[in-house]
Structure formats: structure tokens, C-alpha cells
Amino acid sequence: MTDGRYEAADADPTSEGDAWDRRVAGLLALLRHRLTGDYSVDEFGFDKQLTESVFLPALRPLYRTWFRVETYGVKHLPEEGAALIVANHSGTIALDAAMLAVAVHDEHPAQRFLRLLGADFVFRMPGLSEVARKSGSTLACNPDAERLLRSGELVGVFPEGFKGVGKRFADRYKLQRFGRGGFVSAALRTGTPIIPVSIVGAEETYPLIGNIRPLARLLGTPYFPVTPLFPWLGPLGVVPLPSKWLIEFGEPITTEGLADSGDDPMVVFNLADQVRETIQQSLYRLLELRPDPWSA
């Protein structure tokens, strides 16, 4: 969805010539507005225009054609107002976060944006940090999360962190520990519903079979992955395998009336455990629905 000025760049043309004309026209319109400064960013650096016109269109071929994503339970996302979207994390490279953002925007009638919470490592990486900020992400800390939720945003979090995205293929679809439940505290303090999300398909994109720890320490990364294709095939090894993806948005878990329990460790732990178990059971159900990772 666009504001009308760049609609031509994302339309469905009737011929190849029309497609190129529309893309070029849309690109020129975008460049003109960028050069004149006719755009705005919010206090976190989110650039709505750039996200709609560049980031989301770049991800859609992966979403629609390569991974053939199917979504369930989109009705559980609110038309307006805040919600904390909590998902499992996997896949060696965190494509699940990008595909979840596309699903929230493209599959929901209101075409809302997902404001992802990222690890500090993301915001230390040159280039990646700028893209993350402009596409709506911010640091995974309670103050930022609570500010976004109080502003009525949809906020996405992956409590497994690098433990999830960097786990071996042998441990696929087995949820890792959810940390200290900081996401629960943010939801409780703001009275925001928690929507558990289960993602099937990311585990097969880059099956992690090893980790070269000395290289990881040298590069300052959480791990240096070894997959069936990487690093053996060089840059070609970075191409994700075309696994079939399913994304399910579960029923919201209410936090109303529990604002005073945001600092209660027992309440936080129990609610985090409830969310984790809900996602785990949903993963088992989706895996039965998708018996073949390479199905159409």
C-alpha cells in the first residue's frame, strides 16, 4: 500500500513494457520526494515512506514466491491500538523477522506496520543499523518497548534471541529459554495484549550444522554458521533454501488489570511460560499441517 505517489511502482502491469515504465516512474517519483526532503521520520527513526516504497516491495518476492507464505489468525491483530507480538526465532539469518513484518502489513486489512525490537548487535552493524531504524526497528529494551506500546503500535519481539536463531538444525522447532521475560513486563505495565505467533519454515532456510567459534569471536558475531551450502559455495551459500512457510497469529492474551504486577517475578515468569507453551503447541500443530518442508 502506498500514499498514491508511488503506487505505479507496485502495481500489477499488463505487459513487461508497462512494468518497467511503472517501476521507473515510481522510482523517479520516490527520488524526487527524497531529494526535496518531502518525507518524515518518527522519534525512533522510522521512515514510513521508504518502508512502503523500498523495503516491503524488496521483501515481497521472498514472501510470496520463494517461501510461499501462508498466514492464519490475522483476525487476531487489532485494527488499531497496541499489541505485543511474540514469536519464535530461528533460521541462522533472521529472515523470520522480515517475513513477519510483511505478513502484518500485507495480510491485515489495516496494513499496519510491525515495530520490531532488535538485539544491540543489530544496531552496532554499519548499514544494517540504518536499515533497521528506518524500517521501524529499535533496541530491545523496556523503555523503548513501552513507549511504542503507549503510542498504540504493534511491537514485535523474539524472546529466544540469538539462542533461537543460532540453534542447530537438530533442535529445530524446539523453543529455547525466553530470557527474563522483559517483554511480559512491558506488556503488563502498558496493559497491552500479547499475541503469540508461530512461524514454521524458517528453520529450513539455512540449516545450521556447525559453528566456527574462533571466527565468530574474531568477527564479533554471536556465531559463524556452517550450513550445507555455506561457506562451501561462497556467496551462493547465502541464498536461502525455498522452504514452505506457515505463520499463525494466536488468540490475544489479555494483561488488563495487571499493571501493578509488571515487577512481580512470579507473575512475569508464569505469563512468559504461558506464551512460550502456546507457541510451542502451535508449532507442533503447524508442522502436522505442513508435513513436507518443500511443498507448494
As a percent range, the share of helical residues equals: 25-40%
Biggest beta sheet summary: 7 strands, mixed
Instruction: Tell me what portion of residues adopts beta-strand conformation.
Output: 5-15%
According to CATH, the homologous superfamily of the largest domain is: Glycerol-3-phosphate (1)-acyltransferase
Secondary-structure-derived class = alpha/beta
| Rg calc | 20 Å
Can you describe this structure?
The protein has 296 residues and is an alpha/beta fold. The chain is 38% helix and 11% strand. It is built from nine helices and nine strands. Helix 4 (128-134) links the parallel strand 3 (114-118) and strand 4 (138-139). GO terms for molecular function: acyltransferase activity.
Characteristic key phrases:
disordered N terminus; 296 residues; globular; 2 domains; single chain; Phospholipid/glycerol acyltransferase domain-containing protein; Glycerol-3-phosphate (1)-acyltransferase; Plipid/glycerol_acylTrfase; 38% helix; alpha/beta; 11% strand; P_lipid/glycerol_AcTrfase_prd; two-stranded antiparallel ribbon; acyltransferase activity; seven-stranded mixed β-sheet
How would you summarize this macromolecular structure in one to three sentences?
Residues 83-202 form the Phospholipid/glycerol acyltransferase domain. The protein is α/β, with parallel strands linked by helices and 296 residues long.
